[in-house]
UniProtKB/TrEMBL annotation:
InterPro entries: HicB-like, TTHA1013/TTHA0281-like. Residues 7-110 form the HicB-like antitoxin of toxin-antitoxin system domain. This is Pilus assembly protein HicB. Pfam families: HicB_lk_antitox.
Length: 138
């Protein structure tokens, strides 16, 4: 599994509003925000996983993470190490359902509905059989 651990800066800002802006010093452009610490932690993980997944897919070089002590942190911020598993994101993306519109004769649709046929499941089964795929290919 591709597992990463990167430092994130959580900055509350100086305007007195709730919430945090999250940046990753080693990954310019990887930015998120959260309404509170719990939300910010979740958003940081999502942002990091998605960003690194995109870098892997594009063949980009993923930098080594900085040591937390080497990061300059604003007075209203703090550093948290965030973990990311891109294999989980990859699996979710590969198994993401896509909607396909199809047409069948009315009489056939009615007969199938009367029998409780799950059209999506049947189409997936038929496609796998037609393509010779017993299992999902990786």
């Amino acid at each position: 599994m591709a597992k990463y651990l990167f430092p994130a800066i959580f900055d509350a800002g100086e305007d007195g509003s709730d919430g945090y802006t999250i940046t990753f010093p080693d990954l310019p452009g990887c930015i998120s925000e959260g309404e509170n610490v719990e939300d910010a932690m979740s958003m940081a993980k999502d942002a990091l996983e998605g960003f690194l997944y995109g870098m892997e897919e594009d063949g980009d070089n993923i930098p080594s993470p900085s040591a937390p002590n080497d990061i300059e942190v604003p007075a209203t911020g703090f550093v948290v190490m965030i973990s990311a598993w891109t294999d989980i994101v990859r699996d979710e993306m590969e198994n993401k359902a896509v909607k396909k519109t199809l047409t069948v004769p009315k009489w056939l649709a009615e007969a199938a509905e009367k029998e409780g046929v799950n059209f999506s499941q049947l189409l997936q089964f038929a496609l796998r059989e037609r393509l010779g795929m017993n299992k999902r290919s990786s």
